[in-house]
Amino acid sequence: MADFKGTYFHSLDAKSRMVVPSAYREELGQKFVIMKTLPDDKCLTLYPLDEWAKVKEELDNLPAGEKYRKYYRKVFSRIDDCNMDPQSRVLLKEPFREYAGITKNIVILGSGRKIEIWDEETWNKLQSENDDEFDFDESLVRF
After folding, report:
1. Which ranges of the chain have pLDDT less than 50?
2. For the chain, is the Cβ count within 10 Å smaller at the N or the C terminus?
3. Secondary structure class of 131 (helix, strand, coil)
4. pTM (2 decimals)?
5. pLDDT at 124
6. CATH number, domain 7-134, options 3.40.1550.20, 3.40.50.300, 3.30.200.20, 3.30.1330.30
């Protein structure tokens, strides 16, 4: 089971490639899935193939019906296969960069079984808003 954690600040190179942090490389693997996050987070998500298989199984087990077919179609229209090159770089294709508002500077963060990629400015704004709105409930802490 994947256990991605930590936050890394990087920049895309001139060919719109990001370097995968060394802490994530082995667990992510050479081939993985990239997804435009649902529903409204403007970030990208990388799933190792074994974790993606679990997500896909959940999707494949949705009940029959028009509502679920539309959801299934929407999810699969937002994903693509992805590969890491020998220099540990990943090409972020234009539709994915555009969706997440990524131009140059990015934040790569571990999020348990997946990795999130954010435009740095968007991430910083979100963190600032969360700091203002975050109501810390000590009863939820279990560590």
Report:
1. none
2. C
3. helix
4. 0.87
5. 93
6. 3.40.1550.20
